[in-house]
Fold this protein.
Amino acid sequence: AMGGSSMDPTVSAPDSTAQQDSLFSMMDVFLISLITGLFTYWFFFRKKKEEVPDLPKMQTVVAPVRDSSFIEKMKKTGRNIVVFYGSQTGTAEEFANRLSKDAHRYGLRGMAADPEEYDLSDLSRLSEIDKSLAVFCMATYGEGDPTDNAQDFYDWLQEADADLSGLRFAVFGLGNKTYEHFNAMGKYVDKRLEELGAQRIFELGLGDDDGNLEEDFITWREQFWPAVCEHFGVEATGEESSIRQYELVVHTDVNMNKVYTGEMGRLKSYENQKPPFDAKNPFLAQVTENRKLNEGGERHLMHLELDISNSKIRYESGDHVAVYPANDSSLVNQIGEILGTDLDTVMSLNNLDEESNKKHPFPCPTSYRTALTYYLDITNPPRTNVLYELAQYATDAGEQERLRKMASSAAEGKELYLRWVVEARRNILAILQDMPSLRPPIDHLCELLPRLQARYYSIASSSKVHPNSIHICAVTVEYETKTGRLNKGVATNWLKNKVPDQNGSSSLVPMYVRKSQFRLPFKPSTPVIMIGPGTGIAPFIGFIQERAWLKQQGKEVGETVLYYGCRREHEDYLYREELARFQKEGVLTQLNVAFSRDQAEKVYVQHLLKKNKENVWKLVNEGMAHIYVCGDARNMARDVQNTFYEIVSEFGNMSQPQAVDYVKKLMTKGRYSLDVWS
């Protein structure tokens, strides 16, 4: 037995070696597999990581290449006047184009330029060009902010310590007097350029869109050019002729896959959607709900829900949603008929200035129908430069003279334009109908009409509660003009006809989100006072939803006070059930509603603020409440602000100027925010 046992190892030795061999081979296979697997994973993971930064590089090839120097471009093309524009809705860009076009009358050459495409620090080198001048057409957006395309320029101006002593400049600002910070951007650019040593050759122009922006511009422009002539010692050449900026190319044999059908940037971007989504690449959102909010009255107030699932779009309560509408097809067809044009002709309008960054006035090639439906503004009264350029096509001498007079700077002409075009709200179709001899070529008309702009709406939902949908609250615009025509708001009537759960374009809305400064306080425990009559309630529905969600998360939520107003309780009380539910749940701590027409004397939100003045002061002074105002800028926002001056003056024992200063300080600290429109 002992021998047997002692021999066991000897006998099993070959077995154990074989076992070890097989064990090693298994280990080898395992290790090799593991290494191969890790290498493969690393290789693909690394590749993915590298691809992300590559995307912008790929995109920049497609996007307009940023010319680092507008100076080099001006030298190369023999220009001496550059007109920069800060434009949100296209008007400042339009004015800049008109000024750059004017230059040839004085033996000068101008170019309009988007500040986003150039390095503005080159302004210090403009004096290298003889008889050089920089003009700035600067619109103010929101609460005294620069427009999106002028943000970088604004940041540079704030930080710059450049010496601009050789620069000659002039500024025309575009603003609206109903807003708190009237023409803030124009005023800032004018003041800052002077501080940096630049020489102002003509006074700052302040255009007011609440009055007559077109007239303000013409008045400024007719004094601006004589000042330029005097400064440079040049004279008008007398050339008043119409100069085409684009040439027409008609495509008879074209691949329809290369034709734009309404896209804003990339061809076929609506068929092949790729994030990120923005103004040049909107997302096609499906309308999942479209319901009428009001019970009666002649108006149509509506609540829409846009599905943003799988779009990677993020939004915060208080942001704005921008939508690209389409013009009414009957208006488009009537323009085609009156001008005797086949609207389905495919064409391109190509810039005659080959050096220009702007190759076409809108995406080309496209059809006249697409251009008039998606790209051009055919419903607003045309500006005087359009009338001036069209006058040459009127075969009746009286009509031609009338058009030229309205485009002139004479007092009589301005008055006629104001009465016959602006106040009568005559759009291009109405003008063509009322001037039977005026039949311009459709391509020239398309060149002259401004671009159809996106419309902004305050988002009426919270992304905490509705991460995959954006809600809109809007009222359809419809009114009779002095000529007896029925004018309809482009976007609201287009949205009204969006049918949920239907395939095809009838339920799709091209949109993107624009960030805003209209934000709930960082601390949920901070009280909020929200004032929003009519559709001004929109962002507050989002705010209240968010406060309810925060409360559900166990957060301490401060007082949430709403001042809302409408015409009649049983007619247009928006979101009545939702507000009642929020109040019942204890999220909405105060609901104050003003019905302006339910009694003999009108009652508005500011009257309810006065009625509750002690409580309002306590929330602001002791509770450090944040105040939010949304809605009409012209009357409501101003009246509400004046009411706050009165409350602060009375309970804070301050004089009127001290009370005004107190409220202005609240604004500076972000405790008094506005989201208003006129």
Q: What stands out?
A: The chain has four domains: 70-232, 273-325+454-516, 326-453, 528-676. The chain is about 40% helix and 20% strand. The longest strand covers residues 283-292.
